[in-house]
Amino acid sequence: MPAVEPPPTPWGFPPAEVWPDDDLVAVGADLEPGTLLAAYRAGLFPMPHPGGTVGWWSPVERGVLPLAGLRRPRSLRRSARRFEIRVDTACAEVIDACGDPRRPDGWIDDDVKAGYLALHELGWVHSVEAWHEGRLAGGLYGVAIGGLFAGESMFHRETDASKVALLGLVDLLSDEHAEGRLLDVQWATDHLVSLGVVELPRPTYLARLAAALELPLPALLERPRAG
């Protein structure tokens, strides 16, 4: 099912040539589908900003997971056998779990949830889920545009479930266009670095992004959505 292009955003983001040497590029605008897509295509992503506004970020050093660089220790491969990977069968539940207010440093508020669920309904946001014995054990969600998958957040209710979902995502993206695909994780935290995430300077990321956007969407993300 091809994604539906929403009405264009009325907002304009500053061109990359004038971005500050800082992760925060701009403040304001909204979380409508057209605005979100314009931001990701430009190399930006939103997070809430003090005062109830939206901040638009492009890290000077961007976290990216090379598909061939994902570390698959034996213990994780064993854990993966316990789970069934599904795509887009419970996207709303995945986003709710990622936005659980009990999680430390939570930033996914109701406005963020609504914005990404609207994009999911249009076919741009996808969830990759790890299921165990009929229960959602963990998962992740993100924005897919051509060869870009911009990971937003992940969660787990059982040990290794979110890591197994990440394995599933990498396998899903590893098709004949894998070399040009871009799996963006925003910032390279210690946990993500342990899985194989590297940092790209902003200009390198933006060049990779421009090329990735020209690629087709992975076939498994074009199937009918259930969640």
Map the helices and strands.
Layout lengths: L23 E4 L5 H10 L2 E5 L3 E5 L3 E4 L9 H7 L3 E4 L3 H8 L11 H13 L2 E8 L2 E11 L2 E9 L4 H13 L8 E5 L3 H5 L3 E4 H11 L15
Parallel strand pairs: 8-9
Antiparallel strand pairs: 1-3, 2-3, 4-9, 4-10, 5-6, 6-7, 7-8
Subcellular location: Cytoplasm
Enzyme class: transferase
GO biological process, one term: protein catabolic process
Which properties best describe this structure?
227 residues, alpha+beta, Alpha-Beta Plaits, seven-stranded mixed beta sheet, three-stranded antiparallel beta sheet, 10 strands, globular, Leu/Phe-tRNA_Trfase, Leu/Phe-tRNA_Trfase_N, leucyl-tRNA--protein transferase activity, cytoplasm
Number of domains: 2
Number of helices: 7
pLDDT < 50 stretches: none
β content, as a range? 25-35%
Strand tally: 10
Structural class: alpha+beta
Written as H for each helix and E for each strand, in order along the chain, the element string is: EHEEEHEHHEEEHEHEH
Can you tell me the CATH superfamily of the largest domain? Leucyl/phenylalanyl-tRNA-protein transferase, C-terminal domain
CATH third-tier fold name of the largest domain: Aminopeptidase
Give me the CATH architecture of the largest domain, please: 3-Layer(aba) Sandwich
